[in-house]
Design a protein that fits this description.
272 residues, alpha/beta, 7-stranded mixed β-sheet, 5-stranded mixed β-sheet, 12 strands
């Protein structure tokens, strides 16, 4: 079993109006849409997606992966046009318009539609949010880890892989503010191997309860993720930003973040 021969598929919800799947609750689908598509929120979301999320994904040292970007089939045209423009130079991205449905069944159906039905090896799946970032070697390291754990994975329908070392960040007019965090099963830089023919996906499980449903490993690699905190995301629920020691990156740290996450701090300053 060689991970180099496995398909790697990521799934990212870009303001998808799911029924469930958010810590911020709404009574109706229309209330959810009104919240998600509010102009101020969408502006912040696009700036974060462009400055923080996309650079590391586009710069992956192993480009052999798919990223399913799930949008509501009701996403207004001006936002769809803006999204597609940002993805022009990102061939791994596949935009998937989808009606508002229950979160977990919808994500399972989407993931299974894009898996190779004839695969004889596990599918490596990862989840990602549209306001977070991954290290540029995430996919490469993920494959290496699958190979390292091959004997454990071989007879398991599901096996979880968690990278727990990263940063909480805020994007500001002065640049990126960061606080180092080591948080197992945080929901970013998290992956699952799914055996051939097994129809559950990584999104069928709450990230913080993954270890209750399958064997897992949690690795304290060099920092593998950036978890953003903004005015409109769920990140602050349970971990208020004022409990984190955010500090503005200095020039040396900005260079390090550019190497590790492909983040251009000057571009952050220009957008925010």
């Amino acid at each position: 079993m060689n991970a180099q021969d496995m398909e790697v598929i990521g799934i990212l919800r870009f303001s998808y109006p799911a029924l469930g799947g958010f810590q911020i609750l709404h009574d109706t689908v229309q209330d959810r849409r009104d919240f998600l598509y509010a102009p101020a929120r969408m502006e912040e979301r696009f700036r974060t997606f462009e400055a923080l999320t996309l650079p590391g994904l586009k710069a992956q040292t192993d480009p052999n992966f798919k990223l399913l970007i799930v949008i509501g089939d009701c996403l207004p045209d001006l936002y769809q046009d803006r999204l597609f423009a940002l993805l022009e130079d990102f061939p791994q991205a596949i935009v998937v318009p989808w009606p508002a449905q229950k979160h977990r069944p919808a994500m399972r159906e989407i993931m299974n539609q894009y898996r190779n039905p004839e695969a004889t090896l596990p599918c490596i799946q990862f989840r990602h949010d549209d306001d977070d970032a991954l290290a540029v070697n995430f996919v490469e390291t993920l494959r290496q880890t699958v190979n390292d754990c091959a004997a454990l994975i071989a007879d398991k329908p599901l096996f979880g892989i968690d990278f727990s070392n990263g940063y909480s960040v805020r994007l500001t007019p002065n640049g990126l503010e960061a606080a180092h965090t080591v948080l197992p099963y945080y929901g970013v830089a998290l992956a699952v191997t799914v055996a051939p023919g097994f129809r559950q996906s990584i999104m069928n499980f709450a990230h913080h309860k993954l270890m209750k449903h399958m064997p897992t490993v949690s690795l304290n690699n060099p920092p593998m993720f950036l978890r953003s905190h903004g005015a409109y995301n769920d990140s602050h629920v349970g971990t208020p930003p004022d409990h984190l020691d955010f500090k503005l990156l200095n020039e040396k740290q900005e260079r390090r973040f550019k190497r590790r996450f492909a983040i251009d701090s000057d571009y952050v300053r220009s957008l925010f």
